[in-house]
Amino acid sequence: xxxxxxxxxxxxxxxxxxxxxxxxxxxxxxxxxxxxxxxxxxxxxxxxxxxxxxxxxxxxxxxxxxxxxxxxxxxxxxxxxxxxxxxxxxxxxxxxxxxxxxxxxxxxxxxxxxxxxxxxxxxxxxxxxxxxxxxxxxxxxxxxxxxxxxxxxxxxxxxxxxxxxxxxxxxxxxxxxxxxxxxxxxxxxxxxxxxxxxxxxxxxxxxxxxxxxxxxxxxxxxxxxxxxxxxxxxxxxxxxxxxxxxxxxxxxxxxxxxxxxxxxxxxxxxxxxxxxxxxxxxxxxxxxxxxxxxxxxxxxxxxxxxxxxxxxxxxxxxxxxxxxxxxxxxxxxxxxxxxxxxxx
Length: 344
What we know:
By secondary structure, the chain is α+β, with helices and mostly antiparallel strands. It has helices at residues 10-19, 29-34, 85-101, 118-126, 157-161, 166-177, 190-204, 211-221, 266-280, 303-310, 329-343; strands spanning 2-4, 39-46, 53-64, 69-74, 104-109, 130-132, 146-151, 180-185, 225-232, 235-245, 249-257, 285-290, 315-318, 322-326. It is 36% helix and 27% strand. It has a 7-stranded mixed beta sheet with strand order 1-2-3-4-5-14-6, sandwiched between helices. It has a 7-stranded mixed beta sheet with strand order 8-9-10-11-12-7-13. Helix 6 packs across helix 9 (266-280). The longest helix is centred in the first third of the chain and has 17 residues, at 85-101.
């Protein structure tokens, strides 16, 4: 039985995604408030006899101006056992029914399912999804196809530290001795964070978010998000935003560092602080975020990013990719053509 999430059953839905192994913060109504430019809907599949939730699907809906159609985006896929294709099919049918109400021209999905699960990808294609950017090695998709992470495996702090490179352990210990102080801050520190983020974007060649966006993350995610700032001689020199979800994942979501005082190792101290938070919360995985699939190549512009993350131990994951289920082909083609023209 498909049930639409509403104010009456929202807490039941949130409890399910917080405890399910596939539940992520991107599936929550909290994150939907961060993405307030999109409309949010969610459905649940319940067992007819017990009323127990078996799976769920959350969708962000973007309305296309003028033509009055919408895009359905299922960020990081369904919350369900990954090989339960019967549940997948019922949730997918539920989304297709919901898509009629919003005149959706496409359902986009990028499941957090590793590439080794070949049956999952085959099932997506059987259902009519088409893969975007096959063979993607960089950041062509909405969410990164490649991420770097490590498993906590119930390790103590000492055991976890031993998985790092020896010079990383040294830098983590040296940072406070050199005068670096890491603090958990609120929105009052966002001016400093955004200023350092702009500096980082100019240095590394990427566009940055406005202060209001980070403010929404901290306000909407509440206790599930933290802003960590590193100070040296009272001056903010680096910062990160971490997001946790249940006991599944501690996610390094955003990071910024000044061009100055890199020799006092603020970035290492910040990573260690976030890792400790994940350990305190009993998280299973620490997610460093996206990397390039070819990042181990020294000629790759993202090689330095991989090298920094790799020094903490861990491994790279590749997910099955991004897929579109096209409902209205003329609108789909017209929208994609318009996006290409705008990007040029």
